[in-house]
Amino acid sequence: MARPTHPKIESVPHEVNRLAIAVGEPYDSFRARYEEAVPQFETERFGRLVEENAGWDAVVRATAENAPHDFITYWSQDFGPLLRLAGERRRCMEYLMGNHTIAQRMFHHNPAILLYAPLRTAIYEDAQGETWFAVDQPSTRFSSFGDPAITEVGIELDRKLAALLDHLGVPVPDVLTSSGS
Questions:
Q1: Backbone dihedral region of 78: left (phi > 0), alpha (psi from -120 to 50 degrees) or beta?
Q2: pTM
Q3: Computed from CA positions of residues 92, 97, 144, 111, in that sequence, does the dihedral angle turn out positive or negative?
């Protein structure tokens, strides 16, 4: 198969703020509270909505019920048991956390936003056993698309992330409440 002589390629360098926040409580208790605040995506429920061709309004209502703090966990993985085989002892849980009704508002402008939606988060222990929560600041990810409508939703996600952190009782980084101001 012949390759085009002038392929279209975009290369977009961008700066991202990674936020790591010491949560001030044991790993297991914070993880349990996080997982309660950011519940699992209800696969069967949303699958039925698709099968029924229920319409977007039904999806929005179901999402609001599934995401009491605006976010849902789409995937999670504990790699600790596997990494213990290499001698690692610290715990770390990865998550993909997001909200498809919010992502749709950006997807409408550029489907490539799915590179960053849902958000990738981690709860982990450092070498001293302190528990941390880490996430990339949403607005710094989504502003890389150079579209004001996408950037605006990224800033909204900063605020929603700040509200989640506040609900969890952990320090809220100033950049989440000052972006776009």
A1: beta
A2: 0.93
A3: positive
Q: Decide the pairing of beta strands 18-22 and 72-78.
A: unpaired
Contact (Cβ atoms closer than 8 angstroms) between residue 105 and residue 153:
yes
**Each residue's pLDDT tens digit in the chain (181 positions)?**
666 677 888 899 899 999 999 999 999 999 999 999 999 999 999 999 999 999 999 999 999 999 999 999 999 999 999 999 999 999 999 999 999 999 999 999 999 999 999 999 999 999 999 999 999 999 999 999 999 999 999 999 999 999 999 999 999 999 999 966 4
**Alpha carbons 59 and 177: distance in angstroms, whole number:** 28
CB atoms < 10 A from the CB of 171, how many?
Answer: 12
| Structure tokens given for 173 | 């980084």
